[in-house]
Design brief:
This is AAA family ATPase. The protein is α/β, with parallel strands linked by helices. The chain has 8 helices and 5 strands.
């Protein structure tokens, strides 16, 4: 376990990662690190033609997240400041393993490990698990134009990929605690009691006494 609490909120597209991370950061009085999404110039093109624009998209995300997390590690975590992020760097592999193929996938894996293997790992992952219907409703509600034509099959596969990824991280990063939030049952925005329950589980983990 890291000496300094480092919390990552994760889940598929539309799960509510940024919203929950922002709420937890306010509750826990921690700085929040938000991933760069809409600034990616390849995002709209990717959703229109995944095969054509996957490598450019994934490399942009990887390089920006590497820089962002590297700066956060040196400026905050190593200085003893707890941090909450709305992503785990591992998400780059979750997406790239699905979108890239052949030599491009292998090249990406190599670059990923060179850049990220020595980055600080989260002490806690808050994983928002949600069904396709819930994700689609939230995607529609937030109204990002480039997400409106998203392939339902792609999103469903992403849900399954996240499940596999969390199982893998439980083995490869045993020092990291994974707190699973039922995104179908818990509306942490509209229901203060449900948010408080999530926050209490995170607080207990930080205190070294995780709730069961």
């Amino acid at each position: 376990m890291n000496q300094v609490p480092y919390i990552a909120v994760e889940g598929p597209i539309g799960a509510g990662k940024t919203t929950l991370a922002t709420m937890l950061a306010a509750e826990l009085n921690m700085p929040v690190l938000k991933e760069i999404v809409e600034e990616n110039p390849f995002l709209g093109k990717f959703y229109q033609n995944i095969d054509e624009w996957s490598f450019q998209l994934e490399m942009f995300f990887l390089c920006n997240r590497y820089k962002q997390l590297g700066d956060t590690e040196s400026q905050l975590i190593r200085q003893g400041t707890p941090v909450i992020s709305d992503y785990h760097i591992y998400k780059n592999l979750i997406f790239s393993e699905r979108t890239l193929k052949g030599r491009e996938r292998e090249k990406y894996r190599q670059i990923y490990h060179v850049l990220t293997d020595d980055l600080a790992k989260p002490s806690t992952i808050v994983y928002i698990k949600a069904s396709l219907e819930t994700l689609l409703a939230r995607i529609d509600k937030r109204g990002r134009s480039f997400e409106q034509d998203m392939d339902r099959a792609y999103l469903q596969q992403l849900i399954e990929d996240y499940e596999a990824a969390m199982a893998s991280l439980a083995v490869t990063e045993p020092e990291t605690t994974i707190i699973t939030v039922d995104g179908d049952a818990a509306d942490f925005v509209a229901n203060p009691e449900q948010f408080a329950e999530i926050a209490d589980r995170v607080k207990a983990r930080i205190a070294g006494h995780p709730l069961r």
